[in-house]
Amino acid sequence: MVKDLYPSRVNETSQIVRRQDPVIHNENARTEGPLSAEEIDFYEENGYILLKSFFQGEELQKLKQELDSTMEDHQHKEGPDIIKEPSSNEIRSIFEVHKDKSYFENLSKDERLVSIMEQILGSQVYINQSRINFKPGFKGKEFYWHSDFETWHVEDGMPRMRALSCSIVLTDNYEYNGPLMLVPGSHKWYVQTAGETPDNNFESSLQKQEVGVPDEDSMRWLVDQAGGRIDRATGPAGSVLLFESNTMHGSAGNISPYPRSNVFFVYNSIENKLEQPFSGKEPRPEFLANRENIQPIQPVSNKSTARS
Amino acid sequence: MVKDLYPSRVNETSQIVRRQDPVIHNENARTEGPLSAEEIDFYEENGYILLKSFFQGEELQKLKQELDSTMEDHQHKEGPDIIKEPSSNEIRSIFEVHKDKSYFENLSKDERLVSIMEQILGSQVYINQSRINFKPGFKGKEFYWHSDFETWHVEDGMPRMRALSCSIVLTDNYEYNGPLMLVPGSHKWYVQTAGETPDNNFESSLQKQEVGVPDEDSMRWLVDQAGGRIDRATGPAGSVLLFESNTMHGSAGNISPYPRSNVFFVYNSIENKLEQPFSGKEPRPEFLANRENIQPIQPVSNKSTARS
C-alpha cells in the first residue's frame, strides 16, 4: 500500500497543510519549451495559465463542429458517462471522448498539447479523464470551490500532485457568462476537508459536490494568501487553460445569453498512475478515472491534417 | 382609471415595445447639475450610471456602522418587511428604512442625492420603496434578469417610467463577487412578459421572481441591441449606482468570500404616484410600495452633520 501523503475526509474539522510535490516536475522545463520560461514561472507561481487563442481559424471551427455533432449524436443515448440536466434532459457533459477512436482521441494526443504536459510533468503522460462540456446561457449552474486533486486522491487513488487539467475553451469567455474562477497560488496548499466519503459519491457529486469541498475559513485563508485576488479565465474561443490538479477553482452561475462549452482533458504523469482509493472505498468507474491498460501517449501531429 | 400605457402579463407570449416616456424628464438637466451634461448623457443612453466613491471616509464608515447595527437590532425580530434566509434565518433585507425617524430617513432626504433625482425626474420626488441588503459571501444567490418597472407597474400601479433606483454600495464590488449586471440601453424597450400575476405574488417573488421575468428571446434581443455587452457595477465601497426603473438587471450568485451590502432607495416623481395595480389585483403591502401620506421630500443637508 502506498503511503497516503494527502489524507483528507478523515477528521471532523478541516486543516490546511503544505503541498509536498513540486509544481514543475522537470528540471529543464524553462529551457526545453514549448512554454517559455516566463510561462513556466507563471504556472508555477499561480497554478494555472491561459494560453490565449491557442487554436484558431479553421481548426477552431472544426473543433466546435465536432463538439456539436458529438452532442447531437448522444442526445438520445443514455449512459453513466452522459450527464443530462434533470429538468430538461439536455446534455451537459459527455465523458471519455478521448477513447472515441476519432477526432477527440486524436486531439488528446496532439503533440502541441502533449509536449506542454511533458514539459510540466517531467515524464510521459496519459489521459486520466476527459469530457466535453456544454453549459447553456441563462441557466448555467454555479460550481462551488474545489480542488480536483482532493477528489482524485481520495476517491480515485491518485498518489501525488503530478497531473493537470487542460480545458480547450470553445466559446468566448466573458466576465459575465460565468467563467472559471481560480485562486492564484492555492495549489501550494492542501485543504484536508472534513467529513467522510459516502458510497458511490460520484453519482451526486458530478452535479453538486457535497463532500471534499473546502470550508469557508480555509477558502478565506487561501484568498487572503493571494492578496484578495480571484482570477477569471476570460478570453476568446480557442484559448487553452491549463490548471494544476490542486488549484482551487469554481464558477458562478451564468444568467447571460452566452453559453459556454469546452473540451476537457486531464493529463497525468505515467509515473503517477492510480492506486486503490485512499478512502478505502470502491474505485469510481473507469469513465471518471482511467486505470485499465494505461499506456503513455504517443503524440501525433494534427495541425497539417487540420489544414489539409 | 388611468390608461395602461405598459400592459404586461396579459398575453400568452412575450412582446417587446418601445418605451413611451423620456428618460430625462427635465429640459434643463444638462445645465442645472449636480450631474454634468456628460453624466446625464451617459444615463440617458445606457439607463444607469455609477458615481464612484460618492461617499468616503468617515461618512462611509458611519453608513456601514448604521447598516450593521440595524441588521443586528432586527436579528431577533420578525415581520413581513424583514427577509431572512430560509435555511439559516440570517437577515438578507430590511425594508422601509427610510421611515426609521433616524439615520436612514435622514440619508434618504440627503440633498446631494435628492438634487440628482430632481435633476433627472424633473420634479420633486418621494421614496417609493427602501431597504438595506446584506448578501453574504460563499452563498449569495443569483437574481435573474428583470425590469423593476414591470413589477411596479403591474403589481403596484406605477403609471409611468419616471422613477429610479439609487443603490449606495457599502462593500467593494468586484467582478467575482456577484456584482449587479445591467444591459445598456435596455431601458428604452419594454418587455411585455407572458402569463398572469398570482395573488400575493410578492410573498415568493422577493426570493425568486417567477412571473414578470423576460423570456430568453427578449433577453437575447436586448443584449444584441447593446452590441453583446453586459455591464457590471464594480467599484469601491461608497459608490452610488443610479439605474432607471426599466433597466434590465440581474446578478449571478456569489461564491467568493466577499459579502455585498447596500442601501437601496427608489425615488419616484411626485407627479407619478401609484394608482391601482394594473393587474387588477390587490396592491402590494405599504412596505413594498408606498401610497400613504405621500409628500415630496424636503432635502436636508447631512454632510456637515456627518463631519461634526
Brief rundown of the structure:
With 308 residues, chain A is α+β, with helices and mostly antiparallel strands. Helices cover 25% and strands 21% of the residues of chain A.
How would you describe what is shown here?
Chains A, B: This is Ectoine hydroxylase. Chains A, B: Residues 276-308 are annotated as: Disordered. Chains A, B: Its cofactor is Fe(2+). 2 copies of one chain form a homodimer. Chain A is of the alpha+beta class. Chain A has one domain: q2cbj1_9rhob like domain (Jelly Rolls, Sandwich). Helices cover 25% and strands 21% of the residues of chain A. Chain A contains 9 helices and 13 strands. In chain A, strands 2-11-7-13-5-4-3 form a 7-stranded antiparallel β-sheet. A 4-stranded antiparallel β-sheet of chain A has the order 6-12-8-10, with no helix packed on it. Chain A starts with 14 loop residues before the first strand and ends with a helix. The model of chain A has no long low-confidence stretch (mean pLDDT 93).
Mean pLDDT value of chain A: 93
- Which spans of chain A have pLDDT < 50 for at least 5 consecutive residues? none
User: If interface size is counted as residues with C-beta under 8 Å from the partner's C-beta, which chains form the largest one?
Assistant: A-B, 24 and 24 residues
Order of helices and strands of chain A: EHHEHEEHHEEHEEEHHEEEEH
* Annotation field: number of helices of chain A: 9
Number of domains of chain A: 1
How many strands, what sense, and barrel or not for the largest sheet of chain A?
7 strands, antiparallel
Calculate the terminal CA-CA distance of chain A, rounded to whole Å: 50 Å
What's the quaternary structure here? Answer: homodimer
Q: Strands across the major sheet of chain A, in which order?
A: 2-11-7-13-5-4-3
Radius of gyration of chain A: 18 Å
Number of strands of chain A: 13
- DSSP strand content of chain A: 15-25%
Protein name (chains A, B): Ectoine hydroxylase
Family (chains A, B): Belongs to the PhyH family. EctD subfamily.
Subunit structure (chains A, B): Homodimer.
EC number (chains A, B): 1.14.11.55
